[in-house]
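Structure tokens
________________
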Amino acid sequence: MSLLDASREIYGDPADDVTTMAVNYIWFAVMQSGKFSGPFADLFNAYWSNYMKKTKNKGILRTAGIFFAFRGVVVAHPVFYGLQSDTVRRKMLRFVDNVLGETTFDPKKINSYLSK
């Protein structure tokens, strides 16, 4: 018997990996303070700026939105994370909706994406 698992492919859009980690900083900040601020926002900003400085991958800004949307739906889903408040869940779903409405992701607009 053989099994091919493409979910952990070695080649693909880097935005998938970067947003998988980055969405947690956004989510934890919202759970902690109701907005994108504090130590988790600082971690996101350091993570994102370090990635951009080291890779100079501006193309990620065009694809990050769709990957953030997928990850945002996962962290907002009540089956996977049932103990979070509905307020947090709504903010994360608002984030999903707003990043999908942009042609390029802007890491400086996280609070705007959470509140539009």
About this structure: Residues 14-115 form one domain. The chain is about 65% helix and 0% strand. The chain has one domain: 14-115.
